[in-house]
């Protein structure tokens, strides 16, 4: 399940791309096939990084001379272990809402981007996220390691643009997923035993694996209305 549309980023063969907060590798594995580039995944969780590495182990055509390479780093977004101006693009998907000092994370992203680099950021969309917090103020809103703020896309855009970047694209994602999270929040204390939650989860897994035309159309229709995530694309300069 990818949130960022990699085709909206003008990636080129030979680029070096950072997936900041890569989790278990949903964008890292896609980057591997996007171009013949070097993908770098950074995350605080060693467990998630190991899952990302295992995911690469299932790729059948990882040829030594393919031009496709990757590396992983256990790192905080507040102090990235990379040199200035070393990445052609950075992806930061569903990460900033977890970080208390997200402004420092944005500073670090700007520092490691090349002068003509690109950035894609996604965060939970304001009103679907607000409903989650309202439905489960003592559960979802206080989950350890969970979301600590609700972003306004406009305010986040201004934060990023104040660092010398300009917006060139925006969309919403995961319209089918908002009701799933609302359902979980309604049943938060019993969500793991809820048949309704389990059935909806099986539906989402089926949709991701099979991608039937009907649900793909429905997702595209729902995204502008109730997409769970907002995704923005920024550039520093023009290539």
Description:
- With 239 residues, the protein is an alpha/beta fold.
- Helix content is 38%, strand content 21%.
- It is built from 8 helices and 7 strands.
- It has helices spanning 26-34, 46-57, 102-112, 126-135, 153-161, 178-186, 195-210, 213-226; strands at 16-20, 38-43, 69-74, 87-93, 113-124, 166-173, 229-235.
- It has a 7-stranded mixed β-sheet, with helices on both faces.
- Strand 2, helix 2 (46-57) and strand 3 (69-74) form a beta-alpha-beta unit.
- Helix 4 (126-135) packs parallel to helix 6.
- The radius of gyration is 18 Å and the shape is globular.
Defining traits:
alpha/beta; 8 helices; seven-stranded mixed sheet; globular; 239 residues
């Amino acid at each position: 399940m990818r949130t960022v549309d990699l085709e909206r980023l003008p990636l080129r063969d030979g680029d070096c791309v950072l997936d900041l907060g890569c989790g278990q590798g949903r964008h890292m594995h896609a980057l591997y096939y996007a171009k013949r580039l070097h993908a770098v995944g950074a995350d605080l969780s060693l467990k998630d990084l190991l899952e990302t590495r295992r995911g690469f182990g299932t790729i059948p055509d990882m040829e030594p001379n393919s031009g496709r390479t990757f590396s992983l780093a256990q790192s905080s977004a507040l102090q990235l272990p990379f040199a200035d101006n070393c990445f052609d693009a950075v992806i930061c998907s569903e990460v900033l809402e977890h970080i208390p000092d997200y402004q420092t994370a944005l500073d670090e992203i700007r520092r490691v981007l090349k002068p003509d680099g690109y950035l894609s950021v996604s965060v939970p969309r304001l009103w679907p996220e607000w409903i989650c917090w309202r439905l489960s103020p003592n559960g979802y809103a206080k989950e350890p390691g969970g979301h600590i703020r609700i972003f306004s896309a406009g305010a986040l855009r201004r934060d990023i643009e104040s660092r010398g970047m300009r917006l060139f694209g925006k969309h919403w994602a995961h319209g089918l997923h908002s009701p799933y999270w609302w359902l979980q929040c309604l049943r938060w204390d019993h969500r793991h035993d809820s048949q309704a939650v389990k059935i909806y989860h099986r539906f989402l897994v089926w949709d991701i694996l099979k991608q039937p035309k009907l649900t793909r159309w429905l997702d595209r229709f729902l995204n502008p209305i109730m997409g769970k995530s907002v995704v923005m694309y920024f550039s520093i300069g023009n290539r």
